[in-house]
What does this fold into?
Amino acid sequence: MKLVLVPHALMAVALALSQPAAAADYVIDTKNAHASINFRISHLGFSWLVGRFNRFSGTFSFDDTNPAASKVKVEIDTQSVDTNHAERDKHIRKPDFLDVAKYPTATFESTAVKITGEGKATILGSLTLHGVTKEIAIEAERVGGGNDPWGGVRAGFAGTTTLSLADFGIDFSHLGPASKEVELTLNVEGIRQ
Amino acid sequence: MLIRDTATGYGLATRLMHWLMAVAIVALFVLGLWMVTLDYTSPYYNLAPDIHRSAGILLLILLVFRFAWRIANERPADAELSRFEAAASRAVHWGFYPLLLALMASGYLISTADGRPIEVFGWFSVPSLVQKDGLEDTAGLVHEVLAYVTIALAAVHTIAALKHHFVDRSRILTRMWSGPPAS
It folds into this structure.
């Protein structure tokens, strides 16, 4: 029996060691694309136009036992806007909209995390887009996390927020009254460092 | 009426292609400048680029045919030109072919960068050959610059033709309109 118990004890120790200890730093897995920044905006009030930013990077720190202490920072390459239509993307990059030559990067940095429920939180932070920095609130939920099959530890979240484009000096008014706001959906999987 | 070019003048085919392309190039330039200023709610917002792309593809086909026609035909003599004028006119005339080819190719690349084909007036469609992230931006810049270069070259060409016509009193301009003199 002893021979069997010893490996069990070793496994228990190994498991304990592999659990996230206090606040850990994570890098968002953009390399293997287990993260995405998606948006949708009303087209004429008739339908939803969906797009995404293909290039971004970010990090967050997360502590299972104290999630309110979490921090997140993301940088988005605005040039990488993709609405599955090259001519439209070209237009969106122009000064009419994102003006990516002048504002190549959008950033989000959290300032506070308020826990709103089991696995749910409101992430407050400043978003810099089109050269304008504004406080925004992202409604986030923890999707899952733990040991991945390849020896690493991961944590995944999803978040949503709605931006008024006029707040960021982007004039969509000529697209009609329905197109003033854009909804962002963020999917993030971080690999613990 | 002569279809082919001869040593004394241009045949009907060359003259038709010359004036058709002259009108089309200027029209596409103006259409291009205008269509990018259109408001999203303009009734021409989708129609104007559709016409621009379609006409551009047809012009590209015509350009290839015209180049082949030029090669296959005798070139009317320009003995009355000075050595400088002859060299300059040759440079301008031959310069148009690669310039227009690059202009139209860059336009094609903007519209097909995401894999979409170009619909030509709904008659047929030209498939996308090259897809690349951000290609539409590079191609767009090239297209814009080359469009201005083309119009600049066309202006030089026009001024030279008018100079031959009004100052030198030569047949250079009229032979592109009236064809070779009856022999």
